Prior knowledge:
By secondary structure, this protein is mainly alpha-helical.
Amino acid sequence: MKYTLLALLSLTLLAACSDMHYLRSDQQIMPVREYERMLVGRLDADYIGDENCLVKCHKHDQILNDFQHSVHGEQIASDTGLPLVNCESCHGPGSLAVAHIDEKQVCDFKTLLQLDTLPSQAQSLICLKCHSAASTPVLTFWNASAHANSDVSCFDCHELHKGPQQKVSRDEMDELCYGCHADIRAKFQQFSHHPIPEHKMACVDCHEPHGSLQDHMLRGMTAKDTCTRCHMEYSGPFVFEHADVTDNCINCHAPHGSPNAPLLQRSQPFLCQQCHSGHLSGLGPGLRDSEFKGAFYTRCTDCHSAIHGTDIPSARGRGTFISR
């Protein structure tokens, strides 16, 4: 009976999963020319311009107004006076959509490009037609980025009909990123965290969402370079440097959040003891180290306060990262 119930439960879960359309499935990446063909549109349709597209379709009035006051809509060609970007730049030729429109017949949207059904690579290619790496240097690493390789398209973060900026605001950015990075949301709920929930920082202060040369799409040349953009007092160079922190701050700190202040991967002294053995010393007056020894298990930074580096030597003539 027990095994029968387990088998029925397994079959139920499999059936439920088969009905979940939101589960990601592997899709073969095709050559760029295949995605370009998807964006051609109907060959029997012609380009007619914004006025002919929208003049008879009143429910687009607000969308048209928002677009005309946006970063894209305000760009006008100096020689012709025509917009450089219009509805058909993304939706394809629109003559068939308005061919039979009247007071009772709305636009035939099926004759336009069905943007929602296009693969993410084709969706991004609509934007990349204009926003190439030559015109928008931030997109230099897009095609090799973690986002592009994870089926994330420009449409997932940018909304051309939303308003003038056509991108998410800094106050809304964390919720946008949490849509995919749910584990990061949990880290920012911990006791010690960067002020992302308080909206004093945004994800893009550290990460370049369009791709970079660094792991985790960091903006800096190294992890330390990213951190010292704000924490400049730790940039150095120092005469006496802490070897492990000269390259990667993440060796000791959890960048998104930690139960240990200040963003430590582990509490003291256990963080330091991953590399350093504990100090041994006499525990009473008149006792020598050779007579009785005990280990210090207090916070290392009570004495070693300049743990990132210092220019001041210790009494023994070598750097011990102790502030004087």
